[in-house]
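Retro notes (design track)

What went well: tokenization of the new backbones is finally stable.
What didn't: we kept losing track of which sequence belonged to which structure.
Fix going forward: every design gets posted as structure first, then sequence, in one message. First example under the new rule, 365 residues:
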């Protein structure tokens, strides 16, 4: 039976970041059930490097986002990953929203994000031209990134460190023993076994299913999974945006915001809709809802240039309220060498390298 030190299940951005981090000091295998890495949440998002503004103080999201942002900018420079720190404008459109914006600024300070600045009336015309707003905050450390190239850079690191990434390989089950785990895999239709000392479940939308197939794992520790689909519309035509534009956050996300990609393509989204099955279909009938939300802050929107584009699904652990990342270790479940990651949604991409270091540290203890 093949033996490795660590098996990472799931080659999204977080699984690959963990693989890259651990491969610096040990033999790692990262497996992916699909033909390509990052086919789900990691490639169906806004591709934003978040500053760490909104998350509750002392949450994993807050600390790992702020740390991860710093790691990510350095990594992108070292590995030539396309990235642009173009900044984000958070907008308020009335007195109530201005008060919420001030609360967000204070929350950001508590999280160690101390670079937010109020924009003067004069600055508004430069940072947020043609927009309907009364006050705005500017976040200079927010940026955009090519998520595919980022994941590819992690694979490059993994392979440079003599470790492996393998696609078309499905996790079947794991059986803990005194030295780690015997893991059963389905690889191109063939069943195979290997032994690993550590097992990292970073399967994203499939993490709960993976946990259910780890023998002797207490199923009561598996949080409920709720698929939250968000779709994006692209804007085909000239636009005035040089920065990301974010309205006041909503319950399940950051609202229908305006983002730019590396080619300066403008897109809007995501909305939020809980669905029962893994389904990436877009719904063009939602255009009216998008138009209404966008025109609140950009009245000059030409809706004929707005077109349905793609959808992503977030692995929500609750149907209401705030949720944090869940990173379960031996302290929670009692199985040495096992780490389960649940609910790794936004800001998972930004936090990916910090999550990797966090997981590495938990394996040392």
């Amino acid at each position: 039976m093949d033996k490795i030190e660590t098996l990472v299940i799931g080659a999204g951005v977080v699984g690959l970041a963990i693989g890259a981090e651990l491969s610096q000091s040990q033999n790692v295998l990262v497996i992916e059930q699909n033909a390509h890495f990052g086919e789900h949440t990691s490639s169906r998002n806004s591709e934003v490097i978040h500053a760490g503004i909104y998350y509750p103080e002392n949450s994993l999201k807050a600390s790992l986002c702020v740390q991860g942002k710093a790691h990510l900018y350095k990594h992108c420079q070292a590995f030539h990953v396309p990235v642009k720190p173009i900044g984000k404008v958070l907008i308020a459109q009335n007195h109530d929203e201005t008060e919420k914006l001030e609360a967000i600024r204070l929350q950001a300070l508590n999280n160690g994000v101390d670079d937010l600045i109020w924009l003067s009336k004069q600055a508004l015309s430069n940072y947020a031209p043609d927009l309907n707003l009364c006050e705005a905050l500017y976040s200079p450390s927010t940026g955009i990134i090519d998520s595919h190239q980022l994941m590819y850079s992690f694979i490059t690191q993994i392979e440079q460190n003599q470790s492996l990434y393998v696609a078309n390989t499905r996790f079947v089950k794991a059986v803990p023993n005194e030295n780690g785990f015997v893991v059963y895999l389905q690889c191109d239709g063939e069943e195979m076994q290997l032994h690993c000392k550590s097992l990292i479940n970073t399967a994203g939308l499939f993490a709960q299913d993976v946990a259910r197939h780890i023998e002797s794992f207490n199923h009561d520790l598996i949080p409920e999974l709720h698929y939250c689909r968000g779709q994006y519309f692209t804007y085909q035509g000239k636009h005035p945006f040089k920065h990301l534009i974010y309205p006041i956050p909503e319950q399940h996300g950051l609202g229908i915001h305006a983002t730019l990609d590396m080619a300066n393509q403008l897109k809007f989204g995501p909305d939020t809709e809980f669905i029962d099955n893994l389904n990436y279909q877009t719904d063009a009938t939602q255009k009216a809802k998008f138009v209404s939300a966008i025109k609140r802050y950009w009245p000059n929107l030409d809706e004929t240039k707005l077109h349905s584009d793609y959808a992503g699904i977030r692995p929500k652990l609750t149907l209401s309220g705030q949720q944090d990342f869940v990173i379960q270790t031996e302290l929670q479940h009692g199985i040495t060498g096992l780490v389960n990651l649940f609910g790794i949604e936004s800001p998972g991409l930004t936090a990916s390298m910090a999550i990797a270091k966090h997981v590495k540290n938990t394996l040392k203890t």
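Added context from the reviewer: The chain has a mean pLDDT of 95.
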